[in-house]
């Protein structure tokens, strides 16, 4: 059973070969550095010589500064408990967090979520719970609208972050934040991790030709979405792409999505504004049809998406993927406790311990916050590194970047 529930009464695009040469070179360097990472990582450290008369010191290679991430965690009715568990499993003081429940959750649940989250971390300034949110239907454009709205709020709260990650209550991490920040710190800050393909298949008739009426966009009550009997023609001025719903997107691209689409064809703008596209189609399509960002894609979202609900029988499989996140998990499934204990070393009701945690109690290691740029990678960093090296060295990955099929 899960432990983190609410209290009962609480409320320029670069050329494709150049991008992969740079990234592959970066990762071969990372291979060497990670083999030396056996102690907590700090911004810099020195080895003093025995000869006190020698004023020079030998300085080890200083790791690059860690990035900062902006997380959007979305949920619906009765999702407060899983959202709290997810939040604690990905918390790090360097990051920004926005939690939002759609309108199907009542105000009591929303208030309880905010009170619980803030009490867990002493009213941390990098965490916000959004106010009254609209209804959101996962199969309609309201889900995309909610994601872009959340990204916009995160930008208003702070623009001092590097990557945006959107997660839902059914997602969960397989590595610690120290692992993820450690690996990302060795990558260029201008790459987007988006699983994408131009092979649409069955999605063509349903998502790309279908005309959906999403009442969540214009009604205040809980009405259902429905599809019109008519179908629209596929566009011929650009190529639609599809991928996974979870993406790791750079700040500049998020600003591009929210502030304007100056480099996109007018026909694409019209299509995006009149078609029921989810985030799994929207982001790959905009990226692959933008000259500015087309060369920034890595064809992997660092996320393992299963067609079925994940449970304890999938635990070994999840480890082998090397992914940073996985979904969908059944709410309160025991496999989440096992991930907490064996992969994240997280105690119930507490965040995952990292290099920033200076508490002396084993039960509350993060009760005292230290330097946020000190990282302590776990074996999860090795698994994630291996995955990225495989992705970046794969000829298939390079040849499938925004390629029409």
From TrEMBL:
InterPro entries per UniProt: GLCAT14A/B/C, Glyco_trans_14
Subcellular location: Membrane
Keyword Transmembrane recorded: yes
Record-level GO cellular component terms: membrane
GO molecular function: glucuronosyltransferase activity
Membrane topology term: Single-pass type II membrane protein
Keywords: Glycoprotein, Glycosyltransferase, Membrane, Transferase, Transmembrane, Transmembrane helix
Ranges for region Disordered: 44-64
Ranges that cross the membrane: 12-36
Biased composition regions of type Polar residues, renumbered to the chain: 44-56
Pfam hit, one: Branch
Entry protein name: Branching enzyme
Species this chain originates from: Handroanthus impetiginosus
Lineage of source species: Eukaryota, Viridiplantae, Streptophyta, Embryophyta, Tracheophyta
């Amino acid at each position: 059973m899960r432990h983190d529930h609410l209290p009962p009464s609480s409320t320029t695009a670069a050329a494709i070969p150049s991008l992969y040469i740079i990234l592959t070179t970066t990762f071969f360097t990372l291979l060497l550095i990670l083999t030396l990472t056996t102690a907590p990582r700090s911004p810099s450290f020195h080895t003093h010589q025995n000869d006190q008369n020698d004023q020079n010191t030998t300085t080890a290679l200083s790791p690059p500064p860690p990035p900062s991430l902006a997380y959007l965690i979305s949920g619906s009715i009765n999702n407060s408990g899983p959202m709290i568990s997810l939040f604690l499993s990905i918390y790090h003081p360097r990051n920004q967090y926005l939690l939002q429940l759609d309108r199907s959750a009542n105000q009591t649940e929303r208030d309880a979520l905010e009170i619980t989250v803030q009490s867990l971390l002493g009213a941390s300034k990098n965490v916000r719970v959004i106010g009254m949110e609209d209804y959101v239907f996962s199969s309609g454009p309201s889900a995309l609208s909610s994601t872009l709205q959340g990204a916009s709020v995160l930008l208003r709260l702070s623009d001092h972050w590097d990557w945006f990650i959107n997660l839902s209550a059914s997602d969960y991490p397989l590595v610690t934040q120290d692992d993820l920040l450690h690996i990302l710190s060795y990558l260029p800050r201008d790459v987007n991790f988006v699983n994408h393909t131009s092979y649409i298949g069955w999605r063509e008739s349903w998502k790309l030709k279908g005309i959906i009426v999403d009442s969540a966009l214009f009604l205040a009550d809980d009405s259902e979405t429905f599809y019109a009997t008519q179908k629209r023609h596929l566009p011929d001025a650009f190529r639609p792409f599809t991928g996974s719903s979870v993406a790791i997107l750079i700040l500049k691209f998020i600003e591009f999505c929210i502030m304007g689409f100056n480099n996109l064809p007018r026909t694409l703008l019209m299509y995006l504004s009149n078609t029921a596209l989810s985030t799994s189609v929207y982001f790959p399509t905009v990226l692959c049809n933008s000259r500015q960002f087309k060369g920034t894609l890595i064809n992997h979202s660092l996320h393992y998406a299963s067609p079925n609900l994940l449970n304890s029988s999938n635990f070994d499989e999840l480890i082998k993927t090397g992914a940073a996140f996985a979904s969908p998990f059944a709410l309160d499934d025991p496999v989440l406790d096992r991930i907490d204990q064996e992969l994240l070393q997280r105690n119930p009701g507490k965040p995952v311990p990292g290099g920033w945690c200076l508490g002396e109690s084993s039960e509350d290691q993060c009760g005292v916050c230290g330097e946020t740029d000190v990282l302590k990678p776990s074996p999860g960093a090795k698994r994630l590194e291996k995955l990225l090296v495989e992705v970046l060295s794969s000829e298939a990955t390079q040849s499938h970047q925004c390629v029409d099929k």
